[in-house]
Amino acid sequence: MTEEGRLATEAPQQVDAAFINRALDDADLNALRLALYQATEDESLLELPLKTTPMYGGALNQTVVAEEAVATLRDRVTEFLLNKPTDFTEVKPDDARLRRMYEAFRNEELTDRDWAYRRDLAAFDDHPRLAQWAGARPALPEGFHVAVIGAGFGGIAVAVQLEHLGIPYTVYERRSELGGTWSINAYPDVRVDTTNFLYQFFFEKNYPWTEYFARAGEVREYLEHVAKKYGVFEHISFDSDVKEAVFDATTGTWSIDAVVDGRPRRLTANAVVSASGLFATPKRLDTPGIEDFQGEIVHTAECTGDELLDGRDVAIIGNGSTGVQMLSHVRSRARSVGVFQRTPQWISPRERYGEPIPPETRWLLDTMPYYWNWYCYSIATLRLGGQVLQEPDPEWQAAGGLVNEANDGYRESLVQYIKAKLGNRPDLWEKLIPRHAPMARRLIVDNNWYASLLEDNVELVTETIERFTPTGIRTVDGKERPYDLVFTATGFSTQKYLWPTTYRGLGEETLEDRWSDPGGGGPRAYLSITVPDFPNLFIMYGPNSQNRSGSLIVWMETWARYTAEALVALIEGGHRYLTVRDEVFEDYNRRLDEALLSLIWYDPGSKDRNYYVNEFGRQQVNVPWRLEEYHELLARFKPEDYDFA
Question: Is 490 helix (H, G, I), strand (E, B) or coil?
């Protein structure tokens, strides 16, 4: 933890009304309203007037306490905090009370489907989304063991489930430390672009983050903390690169070839969980002359953090999340920076991005009962409204609109943001305002990228690269620019979900071969988790799994629960293996493909050069359904969807 972070999380020396006022200035007052109600049962708090505040051109609507009630609420919270009983004990609400509070939070009526998805978003259960045995834990088959591949968020989520159930397992991590993408990525200023109050496990309560959007090092520290606290760390085999796994139907086991500490090993597991992640395989630049370049070329996924920047001429190829995130830091140290943009992206502001969490806010989270829970719920449910942005409205389009009212309003707010950031440089507007609809591609967070483009030592290059030369890069207009360091922020090969492991299921076919068949449209799975003929193989963050809004980590926990429930069914039923039924798989993917057609990911202005859409022209990354519907599909493991041996 940095010195700044340590100071930010230390308890304040003196808490008085002035200190509390500063905490309330930075607080989510509606979240505090529900926290105070839960602590005091004062019904009048539920009657305080609320109002709706449009955000991002009306794309989202935040519910806030109306101005005329703010002073009253602040006074009540202050009084409670100054006089809170020393023996105050938090009590978990029952479902009826929790649902009533959820509805009071935004003055809305929840359907049963809404309630089912939202129930755990405030994380009042000690461990939301936890698999359980049907009764007492049964005797496990002799030698039963699960291999988990990867020690990032997904692998740790599964391991926590297995630890709770008492199912033996090993997590194989090819690197010498855990963290997944947060260990791999060390490029300048790497950090999360989703607030930590969503990008966290919800069974680990109120972790003392030092920033609203943590840097990679702090995320890795968090994962190590979780792994040690929940008994996972001692089950991790580091420097263990799993090369191949072959299923034996006779024994119902996977034979695994791995290199552990530099030595080949043959391992056996009854089930395998691939948690290698979607963003694991760097996408290489393939440009003429690259082998003749005499400077350094570094893919951002292979940065060490030790690259020398001072006084150098640097090129950044790519303006996706990574390229945008690193520019400001690189520009501050390099002599010159060339930013090579192939396609304009929607780059948006994000509230509190890059800001430390003040001591007053940390104190309030630690001191006000239930506030952390309601703060998380507030952020999670705000984003639910953003799902409409991806749903074209035919009537709106027939009347001359582009997508729908909300998306067009969001587009206009982003255009105005770009113009405001570029100030007196209207010549850049056409180069930087995208033609595709917002949300048709991944939205990118502005880390002073637009401001950096206006600096004297930064040049935006939109001409296509023709080739590398020994001393630089030449574009198709014939202009050559000298560089001695090139960062390729060109993303990842997102078809390689299970890299670097080869999986052979029933019939000796590899999963990579099946997914490479053009007739299949690329990688597919049932619920993003299982594939026919690959028994006892479960995938975390598999095909069509990325959610349309909300928290990725909620889904990591959900996929992990589903996987654990499948293993429970396997063991309690006395079976060797299970595999998803062909007709279930085919029906699911047919419905998935139909649902995809109704959304904006196939927008003509976005389909090319969009990592969501694979080489077969199919969107393979995102789930098409709203979160509430996808959650319903994953709410419980259904044995009837599987064949058991």
Answer: coil
b/e code 599-615 from CB counts within 10 Å (16+ = b): bbbbbeebbeebbbbbe
Q: Which residues contact 436 (CB under 8 A, 6 or more apart)?
A: 603, 605, 606
Contact criterion met (CB below 8 Å) for 388 and 60: no
Which residue do the tokens 């010498």 mark? 176
- Residue 95 dihedral angles phi and psi, to the nearest 5°: -60, -40
> What tens digit of pLDDT does each residue of 417-458 get?
999 999 889 999 999 999 999 999 889 999 999 999 999 999
Buried b (16+ CB within 10 A) or exposed e, 462-494: beebbebbeebbbbeeeeebebbbbbbbbbbbb
Return the closest-CA partner of residue 207 out of 379, 357, 353, 34.
Answer: 357
Residue 306's pLDDT band (boundaries 50, 70, 90)?
Answer: confident
Residues 253 and 269 sit within 8 Å (Cβ to Cβ)? yes
Contacts of 326 (CB under 8 A, 6+ apart): 187, 188, 189, 190, 300, 316, 447, 487, 489
CB 540 within 8 Å of CB 559: yes
Pair 490, 318: CB distance under 8 Å: yes
CA distances for 599 relative to 172, 389, 564, 572, angstroms: 38, 9, 32, 41
Please state the pTM of the whole predicted model. 0.94
Cβ(364)–Cβ(27) below 8 Å: yes
pLDDT tens per residue across span 247-299 = 999 999 999 999 999 999 999 999 999 999 766 667 788 899 999 999 999 99
